[in-house]
């Protein structure tokens, strides 16, 4: 029967597993997805193993002669959704991800922790640098946007602190006087002046947490 399958040397109903995950009768598919999303993976494994143990002792109770369609109608959920839930658990032991039409998740929790630790240790690393370091360490390829999103989930955002030369009132007055004195210079006179291409303002990106983001970043003096 479609409603009874083999699991851990015992016979377990997919409906039984679905009910053990906390889905009550009468819930629609959207509500069922929300409940499953709030369940932890280890809770699902514990519940399924418990149901499997009960099935070995109460096989007669599971074989009620009802079809998967009848059970799904009783719970108010489509049979295809129950099949997807069970197949997902058999594939990776995970029932926490909701049904989605988007791309599957690329990074694992260990990859996310590696990105977080690396960003905190090297706060001036760019998203591209973090992506390359993750690939070198784990072999996982992610884009810059995914790095931004993963770090944003744990409260790490990028900001650009200002690094500049301090200017006093005397500096401003001297510069204004110099500009006025040279306002009428000819191109021949300017040809004897050497200009430097090094800017006095240097900007760089750093990773900060939410607590640091509450306070404005003051310019840091660079002599």
Automatic annotation (TrEMBL):
<protein>
    <submittedName>
        <fullName>HTH_Tnp_Tc3_2 domain-containing protein</fullName>
    </submittedName>
</protein>
<dbReference type="InterPro" id="IPR009057">
    <property type="entry name" value="Homeodomain-like_sf"/>
</dbReference>
<dbReference type="InterPro" id="IPR002492">
    <property type="entry name" value="Transposase_Tc1-like"/>
</dbReference>
<dbReference type="Pfam" id="PF01498">
    <property type="entry name" value="HTH_Tnp_Tc3_2"/>
</dbReference>
<dbReference type="GO" id="GO:0015074">
    <property type="term" value="P:DNA integration"/>
</dbReference>
<feature type="domain" description="Transposase Tc1-like">
    <location>
        <begin position="112"/>
        <end position="182"/>
    </location>
</feature>
<dbReference type="GO" id="GO:0005634">
    <property type="term" value="C:nucleus"/>
</dbReference>
<dbReference type="InterPro" id="IPR001387">
    <property type="entry name" value="Cro/C1-type_HTH"/>
</dbReference>
<dbReference type="GO" id="GO:0006313">
    <property type="term" value="P:DNA transposition"/>
</dbReference>
<dbReference type="GO" id="GO:0003677">
    <property type="term" value="F:DNA binding"/>
</dbReference>
């Amino acid at each position: 029967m479609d409603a009874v399958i083999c699991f851990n040397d015992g016979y377990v109903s997919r409906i039984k597993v679905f009910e053990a995950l906390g889905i009550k009768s009468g819930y629609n598919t959207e509500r069922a997805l929300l409940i499953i999303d709030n369940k932890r993976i280890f809770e699902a494994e514990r519940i399924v193993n418990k149901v499997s143990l009960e099935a070995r002792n109460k096989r007669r109770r599971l074989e009620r002669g009802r079809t998967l369609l009848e059970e799904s109608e009783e719970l108010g959920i489509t049979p295809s959704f129950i099949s997807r839930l069970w197949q997902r658990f058999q594939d990776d032991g995970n029932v926490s991800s909701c049904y989605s039409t988007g791309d599957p998740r690329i990074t694992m929790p260990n990859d996310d922790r590696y990105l977080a630790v690396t960003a905190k240790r090297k706060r001036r690393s760019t998203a591209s640098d973090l992506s390359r370091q993750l690939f070198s360490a784990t072999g996982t390829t992610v884009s810059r946007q995914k790095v931004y999103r993963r770090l944003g989930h744990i409260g790490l955002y990028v900001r650009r602190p200002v690094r500049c030369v301090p200017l006093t009132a005397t500096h401003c007055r001297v510069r204004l006087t110099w500009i006025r004195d040279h306002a009428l210079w000819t191109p021949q006179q300017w040809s004897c002046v050497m200009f430097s291409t090094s800017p006095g303002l240097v900007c760089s990106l750093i990773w900060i947490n939410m607590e640091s983001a509450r306070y404005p970043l003051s310019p840091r003096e660079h002599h």
